Amino acid sequence: MSDKKEFILDKIKDKYKFIGDSTFYSIYREFSKKCHEYIMDKNESCAKDSLISSSVSPKVSKLLKELYSNLYRIYKTIKRYSNDYFEEMESEVKNMGCLYLKHWLYDQITINELQETEINELFEGWEQYIKKELEHFSLKHCEFYNLKENEINRIKKIHVLNKILHYNGNNSESFIKDKCIYMDYFGEGLDEFISSINKCSIEEYTYNYCKELKEFLNTCKDDNEFSGISIYDENTKSEAETARKYFLFSEKYKNEQLYMYVKDRELLNFVKTSHFLSNKSTTIAATSVVGSAIGLSSIFYYFYKVILNDIFKYKYCIKIYKKYISKLLL
């Protein structure tokens, strides 16, 4: 699966029905709707042709205008000025709309095969043309930081992990038994989440990827019901126990200890008993409280439960586990 387009949300939802049926995907799909398709809108959400300089490349200019239109729709929905755009999804748009829009934009970068120079032009265009135009919107977690392509791919993995943990509570058994085609990708999301927290604890705050991570962490706080990962600090972690959430792992971020929880036991067991680990599994075990729980035991438990019980159906997974076992025996 070396093709980066295999990891866009439209591909993932084709494989996992619960993603395709989610409000996350419904909102994401709405972002691709053209502004002139809203009859009651009267083109109000459309960006003016004069908004973007003619010197901007056509692909980037098109994405900037679509970004403007989507931010306008989010704002009007949150402020309850209109229910034309995200009908019956207003609450999730208010809490997660900008995060979902970022994921949509990152997928568009992949779909349109933007090069590094064009990606830089896109984020510079956000600063120069869109941000100033919409400053009065004051949307939370809606800053678009200038990221490189590899940083975009890293944060996308974390986004997908978060939604898998949010929507997969009733699908864990079928999800585990499914093909392994995306399992490495989801596992890398967990690895990336933990390593990014560690990295951004020592990086300068001006580092754009760390700014983006901080926005994601803030989105997962405040008991956000639409986030698969709930984050608490030392003073608030008792609230997680009161809310009957289940402890996943803990990491130190800058000068505070963060505690990560999931919303139900099935999700916690899913993480522990699936091969939700990639080549960085030793990093997880060394840095997280739950590392020992989702380390050796999960690998061999899953190997026994799935591979040996249905060897022919899951024979394509053997190579994946071979690399884990080989590493552990070194």
Which tags fit this structure?
mainly alpha; 15 helices; three-stranded antiparallel beta sheet; 330 residues; globular; disordered C terminus; 2 domains
Topology:
Blueprint: H1 9-15, H2 17-20, H3 23-30, H4 58-78, H5 90-111, H6 116-133, H7 149-167, H8 172-177, H9 183-202, H10 208-220, E1 230-232, H11 237-242, E2 246-253, E3 256-262, H12 265-273, H13 281-287, H14 296-308, H15 318-329
Antiparallel strand pairs: 1-3, 2-3
Characterise the protein shown here.
This is Variable surface protein. The chain crosses the membrane at residues 284-304. 56% of the residues lie in helices and 5% in strands. It is mostly helical and 330 residues long. The protein has 2 domains: 1-144, no CATH class; 148-330, no CATH class. The chain has a 3-stranded antiparallel β-sheet. A hairpin with a 2-residue loop joins strand 2 (246-253) and strand 3. Helix 3 (23-30) packs across helix 5 (90-111). The radius of gyration is 21 Å and the shape is globular. The model is unreliable at 278-330 (pLDDT under 50).
Profile the largest sheet: 3 strands, antiparallel
The residue fraction in helices comes out at 55-70%
Overall mean pLDDT stands at 79
User: Tally of extended strands?
Assistant: 3
Instruction: Domain count, please report it.
Output: 2
Roughly how many Å is the radius of gyration? 21 Å
Question: Short summary of the structure?
Answer:
This protein is mainly α. The protein is built from 15 helices and three strands. The longest helix has 22 residues, at 90-111.
